[in-house]
Amino acid sequence: MTMSMTTPRTVITGTGHYVPPRIVTNDDLTKLMDTSDEWIRERSGIRERHHVDGGVGTSDLAVEAARRAIDHAGIDPGTIDFVVAATLSPDHYFPGIGVQIQAKLGLGTTGALDVRNQCSGFLYALSAADQYIRAGTYKRILLVAAEIQSTNLDFSDRGRDMSVLFGDGAGALILEPNAEADGRGILSTHLFADGNFVSHLWMEKPSPKDCPTFQPSFFDEGRFFPRMEGRNVFVNACQRMPESVREALDQNGLAVEDIDVLIPHQANDRISLMVAKGLRIPVEKVVRNIDRFGNTTAASIPIALDESVKSGRIRRGDLVALTAFGSGYTWASALIRW
Ligand SMILES: CC(C)(COP(=O)(O)OP(=O)(O)OC[C@H]1O[C@@H](n2cnc3c(N)ncnc32)[C@H](O)[C@@H]1OP(=O)(O)O)[C@@H](O)C(=O)NCCC(=O)NCCS
Fold first, then answer.
1. Whose C-alpha lies nearest to ligand 1, atom 17?
2. What is the pLDDT of residue 4?
3. Confidence bin at 313 (pLDDT 50/70/90)
4. Which of 28, 95, 117, 291 could form an S-S bond across to 121 if both were Cys, CB 3.0 to 4.6 Å?
5. What is the 204 CA–ligand 1 centroid distance (Å)?
């Protein structure tokens, strides 16, 4: 969605991320299932990921990331006037984590929106936050994307295609209207979905369609675990992410050569390389940190964004392209003049 030049653009004034301290290497996984470090690295580029210990919830990771973004922005948390949270793994079936983040940060009665768009969740949330800021509804939004996948993966041979890929973590941003007329900020966000692919990447159960919702046979059949058709996900991700970036560039009158930094959702390093190839963008411009985090679902882009900002890889004035693909299928892109 693009908006007229008369409305102020949304700028990112703070970033932060947090991952739980426990590192799980590929070799650690070989003790649980028939897999190997070589297979995982060759097929996904992942060397290690972080897993939570018992008792830690997604909202806990989210709050740590949020605190870091708040510190980075140098703001008083009491001035945050809206919270947007993206996750597919809330602490509870309901409510979502937005309200928990809001309460843990002591934000009084500030509104909190939960976004459920899986690996595209961060970009869908960014788009929503951008519209609120540009419309003048809110002046300082905390956006958090957080995920715990490790506590509900099938670590048997049956689930090894999925369970080696995912990790836990959180990323956060502070968003505000740009007071300067310097053209910096979010240029556009583009959101897409094709719900014909729901069952290609999903957690089928629990479902309120079943009465009762929780049935022992579902546990026996492993239907409470996420499942995917990996090849189909791979092919669609490689096609849709470049497509969405091209659409964003076209609508802004920009070219691939104008992009300084591309951050694709870290689904699989082979997918990131295919996205680079599809866009004909030099691989040096593509942020790739999946080797250390695995796929952290909605959190992967804001984690990579925070690392890139703090390491100086993203500099003021750079054109930053973000793109994601995930369950739904959903996919999206955003262009930001940093
Ligand atoms: C999952 C993925 C890495 C599998 O790679 P692939 O090249 O498609 O491999 P295949 O599914 O064809 O499986 C090849 C073999 O490896 C086996 N295999 C699967 N997972 C394995 C693992 N962790 N370790 C060892 N072998 C494994 C399969 O059982 C299969 O064995 P077979 O040939 O005897 O049947 C790949 O499909 C992928 O990355 N898809 C996208 C996943 C993704 O990004 N999901 C999240 C999107 S947000």
1. 161
2. 52
3. very high
4. 117
5. 20
